[in-house]
């Protein structure tokens, strides 16, 4: 993809950027390596001070940052503003907790392993490459940047090619907070330029959030080079509604799951699996609430959701809908490409989706919901697990036994009961199966890119 601000609301290219030259990439790698030698010798307190200052800058500039996000990828200004402040909160979380997360440990008494002294230390490993997507341009990158820097690693950000201004902002933010020059840099490179970077010995590890194809390519290159990778690759999350569910609460959350961020969220409900006893009522209430949403200008107050981020993502979403329609799915609302400029797509609900339809198996990254009836709770669980993905799931019930059934039975990295699937700096985030491996956020997230060093002394 060429590196450009291609405004999804108008379809106009507003600004193009040249990819970094080999000389610029070499300079960034050298700066990252040099900054690591400085950063690894700083204390948690020093790094926390810089991280707090960077978070203060982000909060103070949140409106400008939100305008950039909405212009580049089309989410509503209100949700972009929320994202900027949430990112600052995530930075403060790691500033305040990194020292505890990475404190040395003594898991057994020294004499149990024949030593006079033992320690397990968590030490930084060096420059880490982050390949990031456009759907949460600041938050996704921050989930990597804040723990990496607080651990004492340096970061190189290869952001999605359609969000260069968010990328450049992040490339300066941490130095403005006080981190050494070179500690966190943006590389303006296209997807096709990423793999050779992993052959460079100075890059010690890689994290990628995005599609399964990009993740598999990057992980293969990392594996060839014996480098660690963390992959966060999206999902086809189940949203399970059982007869005791509070539909007044579930329906608006279901709508938000599908139209929030124009449906371009890895962790949002996509497959709505509804018990037969409440199926008709849920279908009717959910479909009319979806039909009542308003897509349009991300900066207008009345807009529920903006355009799709890229023309390609909209095309892929519509192809999934057309494939399902051709194979017999019913389109209860939406499903038509609007005329006019911009990459808008209406809130869409499909029923009668069968396993031969692509949308039953693939991630649909747009405001399209599929409804599936379930005979009972066990059937709902079986359907929920019948996916190549395993990121997260949302379950709606008042019965403790059903909560237990789904909490233990779901093959996902997260289970949300009677609430919206989301990410929190304090809680691990990630998936199983094609949703990837490794975890972001919380203590486990910061420990992904450290050298866990055992020290044993006779
Ligand atoms: P991609 O996976 O192509 O892009 C994500 C990041 O990976 C971008 O920085 C991209 O760079 C980079 N990239 C792409 N191909 C390669 C490669 N072969 N080697 C190294 N890096 C690569 O996502 P798309 O934007 O194309 O979206 C396609 C689909 O991916 C969506 O419809 C959705 O299903 C899924 N997706 C999931 C996300 C999630 O949150 N888990 C986020 C985004 C997408 P560049 O932009 O330069 O191509």
UniProtKB/TrEMBL annotation:
Keywords: NADP, Oxidoreductase. Pfam families: Aldedh (PF00171). PROSITE patterns: ALDEHYDE_DEHYDR_CYS (PS00070). The keyword Oxidoreductase applies. SUPFAM superfamilies: ALDH-like. InterPro entries: Ald_DH/histidinol_DH, Ald_DH_C, Ald_DH_CS_CYS, Ald_DH_N, Aldehyde_DH_dom, ALDH_GabD1-like, GABD/Sad-like. The keyword Transferase does not apply. One of its GO terms (molecular function) is succinate-semialdehyde dehydrogenase (NAD+) activity. CDD domains: ALDH_SSADH1_GabD1. It comes from the Bacteria. Residues 3-455 form the Aldehyde dehydrogenase domain. Belongs to the aldehyde dehydrogenase family. PANTHER family: SUCCINATE SEMIALDEHYDE DEHYDROGENASE [NAD(P)+] SAD. This is Succinate-semialdehyde dehydrogenase/glutarate-semialdehyde dehydrogenase. It comes from Pseudonocardia cypriaca.
